[in-house]
Amino acid sequence: MIRFMTATLHNNILKFMVTGGVLTQGVRAGAEAFTEGELRAGIEEAHKADKLTAAHVQGLAGIKNASCAGIDTIEHGAFDTWDEEALDPLQSRWLVPTFAAPDGILSGTGTLPECIISNTEPVAAKHQENTAAAHQFSIRIVAGTDAGTPFNPHGNLPWELELLSRVGLSHLEVLRSATTVASEALNLTGQVGTL
């Protein structure tokens, strides 16, 4: 299946849904969908086809599996506990926290199904604190919004940048997260993200 997808995809990135997320009723955010070995096989096939790989991940076990398997970027990366040993492999990856997604969802309390709010609250509670710790651990952070999630429209990047500044990134680091660091993560250094 991965070989078929990498051969037929016209996009340059293949995203793996490594764990459950917060929007699907009956699925626990952080529930692992792949073993490290399964991910490694898919990632190797994608890389053979010159595709970058991204991982939708909630939870430390999923982050560790995806990082150890060779994923290029970690999307969301929300986790409720901090474990430097488990995050060591993430130092050679990029983390895209997408704070605007849970922020938008929680702003929809009263209009969204309760299961979405109850899935999001525990994830969001520690997400910023632990992303700040990841930043202190020298993990590269890329700005991204996960636009299209509830109450998180396209064009919401300025709000994401504000949220990144609240977890300890300097103004220069915030700017770079949306420019040079993002272009590095996408293998577009020298083409976009710099003047």
Automatic annotation (TrEMBL):
Residues 13-195 form the Amidohydrolase-related domain. InterPro entries: Amidohydro-rel, Metal_Hydrolase, Metallo-dep_Hydrolase. This is Amidohydrolase-related domain-containing protein. GO terms for molecular function: hydrolase activity. Pfam families: Amidohydro_1.
